Amino acid sequence: MSGFDTRWLDLRERADHAARDGALLRAAAAYLAAGGEAPLAVDLGSGTGSTLRAFGSLAEAARWRLVDNDPRLLEAAASRLSGFGAVERVEADLTRLSASEIEGARLVTASALFDLASRSFVEELAALLAERRVALYAALNYDGAMRWDPPLPADDEVVAAFNRHQTGDKGFGPALGYGATEALREAFARQGFEVRLARSPWRLGPGDEALHALFLEGVVAAVAETGAVEPARLADWAARRRAAGPFCEVGHWDVLALPR
Ligand SMILES: C[S@@+](CC[C@H](N)C(=O)[O-])C[C@H]1O[C@@H](n2cnc3c(N)ncnc32)[C@H](O)[C@@H]1O
Fold first, then answer.
1. In this predicted model, what pLDDT tens digit does every residue of 70-117 receive, in sequence order?
2. Probe ligand 1: pick from 116, 120, 140, 254, max atoms within 8 Å of CB?
3. CA distance 260 to 184
4. In this model, does residue 223 exceed pLDDT 90?
């Protein structure tokens, strides 16, 4: 299992949905809808089904398959997707990606997944999708940029350590971290896809205090593991950041790769 909990995924969903690039989302939905009656979309690393909820009414004409290695999240998806008709839920470990998970799909989707994945996973997936002429819509790939308002002197040091931690092994081998978007662009372009990119930054502000607090906890835990920032300095930074409020921008990109 992956260790992502429903509280974190539920809390981030509003910011995630606000951040997604609308034009790319609509283009992905239009591509899916052009696939005849009840085309299949497969969401990799689905968690509780946030991508499906982001499609909203655009998802209705399609069949969906959610794939995740965490049975608790797939279980939680059921109650969170009651309005969406039949949704297949498949427990599978993507580090051993097989064609069966994506068989029959017209569109593969993912969100906040590829920064955990490795370059070889992305290349394998691009080859599998190219052979089958399946499109990819990959939203919310972290790009390494975090900016708070007001800034603090230690921000850059903490973000640099966090970004190093992001490239550690998350089950797939060395993770792409903030390099995920570029790896997706390269691998899918090499396989002949038309690749479109759009920014999808989180812009946190009033009302995002709980999300920001949990996000800070995650940043601090990751940075502490690196040992790159002295513990007292890190604790001081976190206390000041909490006190300064949730005003921050966290960079992400959305990627749409369409077969030509
Ligand atoms: C950051 S969460 C994103 C969840 C969801 N896509 C969303 O946007 O809310 C990453 C998801 O990838 C899943 N995941 C991580 N490693 C995986 C693996 N090896 N096989 C399948 N799923 C995996 C986790 O269980 C988690 O649901």
1. 999 999 999 999 888 879 999 999 999 999 999 999 999 999 999 999
2. 116
3. 16
4. yes
Ligand 1 binding residues, C-beta < 6 A: 2, 4, 9, 16, 45-47, 50-51, 68-70, 73, 93-95, 111-113, 116, 171
Q: Which domains does the chain have, with CATH numbers?
A: 6-146+170-203+251-259 (3.40.50.150)
The pLDDT value recorded for residue 1 is 46
User: Largest Cα–Cα distance of the chain, in whole Å?
Assistant: 59
Write down the pTM of the prediction.
Answer: 0.97
